[in-house]
Amino acid sequence: MSDNKNLSKDVLNAVNKKTGNTISENAVKKLANGVTADTIKNEAELRQLIKQVAAVAKVPVAESTINDIVSAVKKSGINMSNIESLMKMMMK
């Protein structure tokens, strides 16, 4: 079983590598602190979160991509324990 800190660093490194931009750990923590289980259930809040992540990553996200992510989250019943899946989907 992997350590959460290492997993977080790995995800951050993967995002930085994929985007070619450097995202600080503090920026990610600030975003993550605002995320609750309700954020994932509320479509407006989920859309806002996706846009905030895109802004922090300095990666443009098309409205169609946002729609795809929201749809996938709804279909999968994603929750806080598997939010990493959402991050991976956004990195594609």
UniProtKB/TrEMBL annotation:
InterPro entries: SpoVIF (IPR025942). This is Stage VI sporulation protein F. It comes from Paenibacillus spongiae.
